[in-house]
Amino acid sequence: MEYELIRSDRKSLALQIKPDGGLLVRAPRRMALRSIERFVAEHRDWVERQREKRAARPRPEPMTPEELAALKKEARPLFLARAAYYAPLVGVRYERVTVRSQRSKWGSCSVRGGLNFNCLLLLAPPVVLDYVVVHELCHLLEMNHSPRFWAEVRRVLPDYESCRKWLRRNGESLMARLPER
């Protein structure tokens, strides 16, 4: 089975079906290739089921570049307001807020306090947008996904796990709304 391999400082293996149906394997830097290949082979049925599910889903109509520009313009004041609301609850300060239209991320933050958000979150339920804002603000306390990080997210948004699930289930169809390159 063919796949694209990305090695990083992670501790576990992960499989991801790309929008084109290709398989992406994420692996620890030092893991032996034979271990990775065995993992892929053991999960062949899962990969095929996921590909079948993906093929059966209707693909949403991509936005025009003009619609995307309007969404970005609408998004900026909303992200500014939500970050300003949640920052004191998290107990952090941030430097700036940037709105983008990334194809693979909902948000990110820098050690200098810069927050970046994906404008497509405006197409999600408001609580999901709030979850991403809180998630990135909590990274200003903990620049990782440790238990302490998730405890901070839970302290501010006790039901954050339902938002994560919503993004896992629906995120791909939101990303598909981006105009073709």
Note down, in words, how this protein is organized.
This protein has 181 residues and is of the alpha/beta class. It folds into 2 domains: 4-56, no CATH class; 65-175, Zincin-like, CATH 3.30.2010.10. Helix content is 49%, strand content 15%. It is built from 6 helices and 6 strands; from the N terminus they run βββαααβββααα. The protein has helices at residues 33-42, 44-56, 65-90, 126-139, 147-156, 160-175; strands spanning 4-8, 14-17, 23-28, 96-100, 107-109, 114-118. The strands form 2 sheets. A 3-stranded mixed β-sheet has the order 1-3-2, covered by helices on one side. It has a 3-stranded mixed β-sheet with strand order 4-6-5, with helices on one face. Helix 4 crosses helix 5. The longest helix is centred in the middle third of the chain and has 26 residues, at 65-90. The protein is globular, with a radius of gyration of 18 Å. The mean pLDDT is 94.
